[in-house]
Structure prediction request, 319 residues.
Amino acid sequence: MSFPATRLRRLRRSDRLRALVRETRLDLDDFVFPLFVGPEAFENPELPALGRHSVESLAAEANELERLGVRSVLLFGIPDEKDAEGSGAWDEDGVVQQALRALREASPGLVLLTDVCLCEYTSHGHCGALDGDDVDNDSTLELLARTAVSHAEAGADAVCPSDMMDGRVAAIRTALDDADRGQTPIVSYAAKYASAFYGPFREAAESVPAFGDRRGYQMDPANVREALRECELDVREGADALLVKPALPNLDVIRAVRERFDLPVGAYNVSGEYAMLKAAGARGWLDERQAALESLTAIVRAGADLVVSYWTKELAAWL
Ligand code: PBG
Prediction:
């Protein structure tokens, strides 16, 4: 049948009809809110979700998030001091470890994910230990593994390696198992691209590389088959879930990963994606809420089971 018998507009005639046939819905259970914790709290009026908490101010924020219905957070730490190896990352009394203990106590029901990477902790801002100007893959693995174990011991529900070193999922899995943390899942940022859209995050997390860029370890945005190879390796090394990042420029990658693997697939709706719509909304060029909901719906429609987004807190109020 075709026009005029078939008229697709019939099911678009009212809000209720549209809702009845809607294929994709946003569910707060699937959303993760990133939280930054550092020595001092400060607000970021233009990009509120990229503000910073102190260990002390975190408990109140967690309670507020739980009251709104947010289920999961992803913690990033900004240490007081940085060094060449990024030793603050695995310090038992490091900022994330303290934050985890505080949150475990204040909000036992909140799911606590941690970003496992060294770039916020290294004086040079790269994601691993250096050998000359190069990020040395194999000596970094042990540092990442130590970091992941210290997060698990401080109360993390899952660890999320975002460094893009080869072999890090296996190294972390072995270290967790050896430390009697066999129950801690690894949510791997398996397909993480070298992206311009991380700009606002790097300002917020003070992790702009002191020289060069991250293209020697993060993926080339031109590649999708390579993303599937990254995922394949992480699955074999023991990843429990796979993340694609950034989300909006890579909806095809999310879809490809969804079709190839049966693990939970997540997408990270990154800082630049958030900042673009915030800026355009503030200028009156578009309606931020509508644009954000449309973006998040597209990410879920592409196949993401879970979404890390700076809009999660606002989304809780919108839904
Ligand atoms: C750490 C890390 C980054 C992001 C998440 N984890 C920055 C980077 O790789 O440079 C970016 C998140 C965002 O932009 O929202 N390596």
